[in-house]
Structure formats: C-alpha cells, structure tokens
C-alpha cells in the first residue's frame, strides 16, 4: 500500500494553527518562510514515500537476524539508510553551529511523523540518534563533541539508549550495571541491558551507546546513576573506528510488531569490561537521560500519529474500492463501503483524532523552539513550561490514537484486515508498542498530575485554559454557523478540565486518589486540548473561505472540528466521575476477588 505524505494538512497546522513563522521573532530562524516549509515537507515526503514506504511490508516479513553477534537488517535498509545520510535528514532540527540544518524542531517533528508513517521499524534508528544528539550537544565535553558529534549529526554513525534491565524496567533506580574508573578518564562497564532498540545493526559503521550505570559507592536509587558514552568501536588516533569494544548483542527479541527493528539484549563487559566515558557529571545520569527521553517522548507521539495516518490512508483506499451491499442514495451496486454510515463514522473518527493528535505534537514542538531560542528569560521559562506540560499529552494521545486508528482501520477492512497479506494488521501490531515504550502512558499521566500541574504554582495549565477560553470567544463571534456550536462544546469541556485540575491540585487530596485519577485526567486533557487546536483550525479555515482560498479544504476543516466537538468533546464532562471517584473505588474488590 502506497503512502501519501499529508503535506497540505501539516502545512495548514504549522502555518495557520501554530503560526510557525512567528519563530522568526526569536532572531534565530530569519530564513523561515512558507516556501521553505513547503520545500522541506515535499522533499522529506518524497524520500519517505519513495524509498522507505515500499520496504515496510517486506521488511516486516524478513525481520532482523542475529548471527555471531552481528545483526543483519532487512533487504533495502542499508541502501535506504545511505540515502537518509546523503539527504542530511538526521540533523534537520539541530543548530548549524553543531553541524545541523538549523531548522525549527517543529519541522523536525513533522518530518519524523512522515518517517515513522513510511517505515516505523526503520524510523526508530534515526529517532534514537536524535536523542543522543540532544544529550551530546547539551552535556558533552569539547573532546566528546569533536570526536562524535559530526558523524552522529550527519547520520553516518547511529546511537542507542540503554536503560532497561531484566530487573529494572520503569523502576530505573533498581538497575545493576556497574561502571568502574580506570584512572585515565575512562570507565569499564559490566552489565546487561534489554529492549535496546537498534542496539546492533549493519547500516552504520559505528554505534554510540548511551548507557545508564551505577558507579562504585554510589547511593541507592536513581541518585546513584551516571550516563556513559560507550562506542561499538573504540576510536584510533585519527578518530576512526578501530578496536571492537566489549559491547555486543547476545539476543534479539521476538516481538508483536516492528519486526524489522532490531530490539537487542546487550551485554557490556563479557570479556573484561566495555570502555566508556562519563557524559555530564557523575550521579547526574537521570538528568542526562531525561534530555534524551523528553525528545524521544515527543517523537513517539509523532510516531503514533504517523502510523495512524498510514493505517487511515490504507483504510480509506480500501473503503473506496470495496463494494458491498446497497447504500442509501447510491445507484451503484454493490456500493463502495465508504457510502455506508458505519464505515463513514470510523473514517471520520480516524481523521478527526489524527488531526487533534498531530496538532498537539506540533504545538509541543513549537513550544520547544520558543523555549530554546527566546531571548527574554521569563518568556523562555513560560515556553519551556508549555513544552513540559504538552509533552505527556503529545506522547500519550499520539500513541493512543495510533492504536485506536490502526484498530479501526483493520475493522474497515473486515476479515481481510485480519489477513497479513493486506498489511493492515502490521500497522496495528506496530502501533501497539507506542503507549508502552519511552515511559508508559500511565507514567506520563503520573508525571502530568504529580509534577506538571503543580510546577510554577499551576501557571502552565492555568495559562493554557485562559488561551482556550479566548478561542471559545472567537468561535462565539464567528459568522459561520458551525463555529459557535464548536465554541460552546469546547467551553463545556474546558469547564470540566478546569474543575478536575482544581480537584487534583487540592493539597488535602490523598495521594492514592490523585494517582487513581491520573489516567482519566490525562485523557480529558488530551481531548480538550486537541479540540482546542481543531477549533483554531476551524477559525483559520473560515478566514480561507472569506479570502476565496482552498474552499473545499476549508469547508472540510470546519466540518472536521464540528465532528470532533460532537463526538469527542461532548463526552468529556461525562468522564469527570472517573477522576473524582478516588482510589478506594479501584480497590473495592479484594485481590483475591480479582481471581477466578
């Protein structure tokens, strides 16, 4: 199934909803323009659709093979990776001073969506390298940057992130990998890591592993963790890959999806110790790792949107071609199933939720650009707070929409969707990991209610609610008959969100009650904020109608916002009871009673 990059839709959100060119006020993106945005999206889309998308199904069938500690990737991956490097796509959103293109992160996230949609298993490799680049540019020494940054930035070398161990998953503080100082500034690491995405492969001549480990006499828990840079090949005097380091893949996981992405069991120190170098300060490993993880969480949200878009496009194509039964008002028999209301409902739900999730991800990316480049300290802090608030929403909603949409897409296919030959099942299998890795969505919810709602005295959510209410007013005064209804429905959802926020921020609230409310609260926050961005899009579309531009596109955008308001926002108030019910409700049935 071909992939058609949604460049028109992405441009509309970036330019009309998020006002991308406003970033020029930072003084960093002087050359940013609509033409440049279009060129980047078009060229990126061509690479993704032309090179990567055709490999998606065959690579899923081939998987990844481990032989004598070396991983053989799917046919076509090495050639595709070489073209990825040649195009300079790895450094798209990194500063020119560090060797990147110097474009906004918002464009980088938009490209990531297309990359993941075209071939999610392939896209995970550059996504992990992006996280390592974030850490290296922020915390690397001058020597580390000189040795590793240029080739990671170009994509010639790739990177992996090593946190999880057999006994330490979400409880990172329980990990046991040890790092001992050698005395020359280097360290020797011993331990085993699991679930290491692209930890070993044949696409790049060197892999730079970022490994979380415990140093001697370090305190227990996360305070005792440090981050180390451990290359697959140690560098010689000329900075070229030389001796093989004591770091190897000893197993590949057999997974539900993303078969072509090598998920490795990595052993460090099987023959004396893997040589590595400290990144940042000793004992600050989690702070370093969160630089990487926050980037990855936003990109996982975009990944969910990408796989949802790919699944939706395939379902739409199938619905147009598949004839079945009679449809009201359609003479053709059998009628294409796109004319049946039940199928149309599924397609509309997919389209609306993809648009909402995509908007949240791009809004988070725009906030990160302002946070990195605004000159005024207070404005920069406010932008950073917006980025941090939106990050769990982007990750959780993008990934949940990826799963829901790929499931609906399979349903549109009917029995044929359950057959691997169509490829619909692969999208569902691939999407299912996204709510799990880079911090489960439950952890995102705990972060949201435990930290994000309370930072800066609650200012970030309070300010976002104020902005959303301004959009409600804009809808109310619109001459388009659809917009006032959208505004009223959005306003009611905002009321629910504001009330739930106050309930959670009550200092007398029991911690168990707050944790019990975390996931349903995150759900209504995502839906309300997603509806808010759709409303902004509807207002922008009304302007296009008045200007006589893109009439059909504008009408469809308004209709999509109305559909989301009717079917998603209208349900937000009904979820308030799930938030305020308290923890006791979850433990009302005894542990024994949960059994058979």
Helix and strand content put the structural class at alpha+beta
List the uncertain runs. Answer: none
- Rg over CA atoms: 24 Å
Average pLDDT, all residues: 96
Strand content: 5-15%
N-to-C order of helices and strands: HHHEEHHHHEEEEEEEEEEHHHHHHHHHH
Instruction: State the total count of DSSP E strands.
Output: 12
What spatial form do the alpha-carbon principal axes imply? globular
Commentary on this structure:
- The chain is α+β, with helices and mostly antiparallel strands.
- Helix content is 54%, strand content 11%.
- A hairpin with a 5-residue loop joins strand 4 (178-181) and strand 5 (187-197).
- Helix 1 packs across helix 9 and helix 8 (285-321) packs parallel to helix 10.
Any descriptors?
single chain, 596 residues, Butyryl-Coa Dehydrogenase, subunit A, domain 1, eight-stranded mixed beta sheet, 12 strands
